[in-house]
Amino acid sequence: MMQEGLDDGPDFLSEEDRGVSFFFPFLISVLSLSSYCVLCMCVSTLPNFKQNEFSVVRQHEEFIWLHDSFVENEEYAGYIIPPAPPKPDFDASREKLQKLGEGEGSMTKEEFTKMKQELEAEYLAIFKKTVAMHEVFLCRVAAHPVLRKDLNFHVFLEYNQDLSVRGKNKKEKLEDFFKNVVKSADGVLVAGVKDVDDFFEHEKTFLLEYHNRVKDASAKSDRMIRSHKSAADDINRIASTLYTLGTQDSTDLCKFFLKVSELFEKTRKIEARVAADEDLKLADLLKYYLRESQAAKDLLYRRGRALVDYENANKALDKARAKNKDVLQAETTQQVCCQKFEKISESAKQELIDFKTRRVAAFRKNLVELAELELKHAKGNLQLLHSCLGVLKGDT
Amino acid sequence: MAASSERSPPPFPDSEEPELLEDSDEGADAFTGTSISEMDSPSPDSTRPPKDIFNEPLEDIFSDPLSNINSEPQKKVDTKIPSPSSDEVVDLFSDPLDDDSEVISSPEVQNPMPDLLNEPVQAPKSDVLGEPPVHKNAARQQYIFEDPPKGSSKSSSVKKAASAELFGDEDEEDLFKELPKVVTKKPQPLGPPVDVFTEVKSDVKVKPQVKDDPTDLFTEEALTAPAPKPSASSSSSRTNGVHSEEHDLFSEATVELSLDSPRNDRKKKDAVKPSVSAPVAPVASSSSKAPSKTLEELEEEESEDTFDLNISVTNPEKVGDGMNAYMAYKVSTQTSLTMFRSKMFTVRRRFSDFLGLYEKLSEKHSQNGYIVPPPPEKSILGMTKVKVGKEDPSSAEFVERRRAALERYLQRVVSHPSLLQDPDVREFLEKEELPRAVSTQALSGAGFLKMLNKATDAVSKMTIKMNEQDVWFDEKIQDVENEEQHMRKLHIMVESLVNHRKELSGNTAVFAKSVAMLGSSEDNTALSRALSQLAEVEDRIEQIHQEKAANDFFTFSELLADYIRLLGAVKGCFDQRMKAWQRWQDAENMLQKKREAEAKLLWANKPDKLQQAKDEIAEWEAKVTQYEREFERISATVRKEVIRFDKEKARDFKRQIIKYLESLLNSQQQLIKYWEAFLPEAKAIA
To answer: What total of structural domains would you count in chain A?
Structure first.
């Protein structure tokens, strides 16, 4: 029942050659949605892969593991770590599926098909979304000049067995939580430090603002799309009620109702597609940049942290010199901090510029696609209304 | 943006223009189309075109009774007159009309008309008022024509004599001889004379000198016809107010006809009784019943030549302050119907007046099985908001919604042929000051009483077990029940769509703002620009959604709400029919009891009480027949009303849904325009 709807999954997944391309054919264990798998197919011309073409099956947790391994690696402190894909949310669908199964007896055939359609459409949308998110993550990593050489990444792509990554247990989760609290408290402290570099100062204020606004826009777009979807669902229900009204009798009016019902049915499809496409092109874009800007903020935080460390090391060195005690040790610490800070600054600058170009390109691509899709749907709808009106008017 | 906006229009004219053209074409069809056809109809006097146009609806109304009555002999009680018959009317009209029009061009024939005309109405009659009597005359003449085939020798001889005396020419006699012949075959062709007479009337005015003698003869005849029922006419004139005369006379004629029609033949013995009892209450109804009954058969035509009565409810205004405040609406009527004093008039009415009108109408008509269109519900919450709130969008919406509902309500009332005849409707539309409608308040003693009545009705309805003999009714009741249920469901869905659209529009607006903010903080200029453009597009889309929501609501949801109410009224009609049936059954039972009592008395040999018992039996027999007839009448009326309602419903729904889809089409076009304008902006991001 589900799979048939998923067939048009791959059509939007075809990626242009970016050195590495990934294909995610539909290979999802539908029944256990939580531990779902993705088949990653990798075609690579890069020399450091053993083969040119290979594929593995990976779970969502493995993606998270890859991401975390990047974050934890000190080497990559100066880079914007590509944000991890969000956990797919199939809960709503599953709930509906359950309801559908329970209510099968009590519903009319008409309602059942309608529900099924709704569910399928919803499922398809979530599926597309999830696959796209995971793909974007891998593409980002693969496109990154440093990260793509990462050993873990290669293992992730090439090791054709289960990576046996376990999810974090409670203790680790708690640790993570505390780390986050400390980090955000620290972040406030660090953010208060005036930066010597204008570029970073500017980026910092920009990112702070940008992040908040993207967050806002993303939440709003979600709400907008949700109400769009419910409107589409309403249209669907109207169509089915009109249908029952139309089948009641065989008068002229009933035939009329049937035709209108048919129209509503088609309109519903279009409206639902519009909502789904807006979701895919707009909301997901915003959501992605919400995470990406968070990653950029993290980078700035790391740099700020390094700066503070460096300044502290400087102070410690001064103190040590004054006291003439542990000077050597302080000097090395100061050296290390200085090096670290400079390295981060250097790569961060490049990363932030990249971030900007990437963002612009992504927005361009998505907005163009959004406008084109909106146009396509609107024109389709117009066509539909035109022909329907023609038929109805011809009738009366 | 500039470039894009220049770019975008071209595709639209193509798609929009035909659309507009189509619309205007339709308009032409609806209005000028019919009027043109009317103009084309053989009307020789171009001197006063308006009259001709005005004649049209009346002609329908008046020629109608005849066709109905005439067709009755064929069909007896079976009142479901097939539409083909009415079509035939149209066809048949044309042939005899041509023949007649030649003949009638001779001046004598017209004479009867103006005279008769002047007889019932006062002599210095204006053109406008003069018309209906003409029809009535024609109707009566046809009545007279109709007699010969029936073999009532007296009237035919009178007529012969009249024609012989009056019209010496052979032509005339030919005409008259011809006509009855046609009558016997197909009664409908009788219609044409109406046409002809009215048309030539203007000629008559040029030659008034011939008037005199024909007058007498015809008036005599005319007088003999209505003679049996002076009481009815007088009482109805009392109820009908100023313009009553024409109306009365007309109704007289038709009532008369219906009494003579063979349908009532078997009840001839009771014929006296109703005429005696009629003046008490149902005079108005019986008089209005006759035309309406027949009108429905011409529904087809009626729907085409749109009702020449435009009512609009505008300018809702708050009057007063605080809790005593109320909304007054301007009710403007534009009509060419002659029953109104002028062609355009406006009155101010408050909501309770509308309710009062409904109360009056339903009191009078619903027991006869008419579907009285229900007014919009009273909404204490909404009104309180209006009273208290200053300029709240929701209260403005409420007022607009109510205004539109009231307008539709009034239009429904006047489009009902028999309700239009009601003096209260006219009074409502015309009279400057209307007595304050009482007992319409929701929270009053009367309101409470009404609720109580409703409750008892509901209970009694449950207790009445009617074994339905009529399959049609059985099915129809079931259908209406189902339909109402589905409509309710649909209404809920549409309401939820409206809510979601509103929500969507609100969310889109918020999103637009948010995107605008995002755009302002974006440091890439092209992207920032594109984002602010996107915000603009979303802003406009918000407008579209809002329009769509309003459209959903006003054209679709309100339509459904109206029809849910109307279906309630239809159900009320069925209930009235059931009540009539119940009355009949009760009387039947009573009669049975009386008969048993008589038998007992006979057995006991008590001659003194026997006479009394016999009287009682006779009384109850009469009652039974009366109730039975009432039931039959109400069944017939309900049936016609429901058929009429169905037709109207189909028309309404088609019109409204097409309108709805058209507006959807428009918003879709706008949407395309906006996105097309945005596309180059998105592409311009570098």
So the answer is: 2
